[in-house]
């Protein structure tokens, strides 16, 4: 039997093990480590002082966790490993893959490697801790695509389609599709997001699946078809990591907190986060003229809402990675007409998010670009939705383009 006690000490997560770590006891230890990683822990110190034996099944626990953590800039450090157990690690070839230390002085030196670099700043607002880097770059630009006013009445027709070249849209959201001929793609419009010109769309059909086009090289002939939406482009003026200091932060609080890091009135956001409950919505039908409600009421009217919108009452997709893009404003007072056309009347932000696999994320702002590329090109997307402000996250990374 192995006892497994978890405690926090000066911001470091310790796992205290006692007894044998073998095929019978390793599953419970593995489960505990998996949960810590899901909860956002990226540096785990495992105290092995009271462990008498480790089999290959026990070694495998450490290697699985180390593999998960290394992908996101994290690590396991083994503390107080006896000489006999060190021999088992060496015999198995694992000694070079895990750092070990035998004293607090050694551990302190190792932990110093993971501290916030001098180039990064720290702040806390709205119950959220931020670690961020500021860059001196020019402001970005934003522009609306198409008209949103025909959405509520389901009145879109062929002449309302706006074609946007792949090379002209860096980040964006909207109701979009891909294809060459209108008759071929008109039934496949859905919630869409574009991140680094990668296109993800969730068609408004009975059994939707995310369709996507990855853009490793720009194609001057590729076009995305929009009924409405918006796009923005530019360089990140701020790249930040975030996590709740007291509870899992909601999207509304995250946006408010991000505005404490910048003085501009409007920002474009690119977010990677680990979900603790997504609240979102997406269309079930394409709002074309031929699908107009027979009762002539808006698709958002209570009489039509359930037929037109997928809107789960309870949060979904906990522990999945969410990759999101959107616009946010500091205040709606004196809001430019362009942003009035983009934002709804009751929200200071308009954000679409893609739901990806359950995996940990790095907490290092310096790894943001790499993490973005890894998620978008290596992980499977299962959904794209308009993300509501009550959605919650455990931690994540965000790039800000000041508009």
Question: Can you characterise this structure?
Answer:
The chain has 403 residues and is α+β, with helices and mostly antiparallel strands. It has 2 domains: 111 residues, 2-Layer Sandwich (Transcription Regulator spoIIAA), CATH 3.30.750; 278 residues, 60s Ribosomal Protein L30, Chain: A (2-Layer Sandwich), CATH 3.30.1330.80. Helices cover 20% and strands 36% of the residues. The strands form 3 sheets. A 10-stranded antiparallel β-sheet has the order 6-7-15-22-16-19-20-21-17-18, with helices on both faces. Helix 1 runs parallel beside helix 2. It is elongated.
Can you give keywords for this protein?
alpha+beta; Transcription Regulator spoIIAA; 60s Ribosomal Protein L30, Chain: A; ten-stranded antiparallel beta sheet; seven-stranded antiparallel beta sheet; elongated
How is the topology of this model organized?
Elements: E1 2-9, E2 12-21, H1 26-38, E3 43-54, H2 56-70, E4 75-79, H3 83-92, E5 99-101, H4 104-112, E6 121-125, E7 128-134, E8 141-146, E9 162-165, E10 171-177, H5 182-185, E11 190-195, E12 198-203, E13 211-213, E14 223-233, E15 238-244, H6 251-258, E16 266-275, E17 280-283, H7 305-308, E18 309-310, E19 321-329, H8 337-342, E20 349-355, H9 368-378, E21 383-387, E22 393-402
Parallel strand pairs: 2-3, 3-4, 4-5
Antiparallel strand pairs: 1-2, 6-7, 7-15, 8-14, 9-14, 10-11, 10-14, 11-12, 12-13, 15-22, 16-19, 16-22, 17-18, 17-21, 19-20, 20-21
Helix pairs in contact: 1-2
């Amino acid at each position: 039997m192995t006892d497994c006690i978890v405690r926090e000490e000066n911001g470091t997560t310790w796992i205290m093990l006692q007894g044998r770590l073998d095929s019978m006891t390793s599953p419970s230890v593995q489960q505990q480590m998996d949960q810590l990683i899901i909860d956002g822990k990226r540096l785990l110190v495992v105290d092995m002082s009271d462990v008498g034996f480790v089999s290959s099944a026990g070694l495998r626990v450490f290697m699985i966790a180390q593999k998960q953590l290394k992908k996101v800039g994290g690590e396991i450090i083994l503390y107080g490993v006896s000489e006999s157990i060190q021999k088992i690690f060496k015999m198995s070839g694992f000694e070079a893959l895990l750092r070990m230390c035998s004293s607090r002085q050694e551990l302190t030196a190792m932990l110093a490697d993971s501290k916030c670099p001098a180039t990064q700043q720290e702040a806390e607002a709205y119950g959220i801790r931020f670690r961020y880097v500021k860059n001196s770059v020019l402001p970005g630009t934003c522009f609306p695509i198409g008209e949103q006013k025909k959405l509520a009445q389901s009145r879109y027709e062929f002449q309302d389609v706006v074609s946007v070249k792949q090379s002209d849209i860096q980040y964006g959201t909207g109701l979009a599709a891909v294809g060459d001929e209108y008759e071929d793609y008109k039934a496949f419009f859905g919630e869409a997001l574009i991140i680094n010109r990668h296109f993800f769309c969730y068609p408004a059909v009975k059994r939707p699946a995310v369709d996507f086009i990855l853009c490793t090289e720009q194609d001057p002939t590729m076009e995305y078809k929009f009924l409405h939406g918006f796009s923005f482009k530019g360089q990140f003026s701020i790249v930040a990591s975030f996590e709740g200091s007291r509870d899992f932060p909601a999207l509304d609080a995250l946006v408010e907190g991000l505005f404490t890091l910048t003085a501009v009135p409007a920002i474009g956001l690119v977010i990677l986060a680990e979900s603790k409950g997504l609240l979102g919505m997406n269309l079930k039908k394409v709002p074309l003229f031929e699908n107009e409600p027979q009762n002539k009421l808006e698709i958002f009217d209570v009489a039509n809402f359930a037929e037109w919108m997928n809107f789960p009452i309870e949060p979904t997709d906990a522990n999945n990675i969410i990759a999101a893009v959107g616009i946010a404003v500091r205040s709606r007072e004196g809001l430019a007409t362009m942003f009035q056309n983009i934002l709804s009347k009751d929200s200071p932000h308009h954000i679409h998010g893609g739901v990806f696999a359950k995996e940990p994320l790095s907490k290092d702002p310096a790894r943001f670009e790499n993490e973005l590329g890894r998620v978008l090109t290596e992980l499977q997307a299962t959904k794209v939705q308009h993300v509501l402000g009550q959605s919650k996250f455990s931690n994540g990374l965000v790039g800000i383009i000041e508009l």
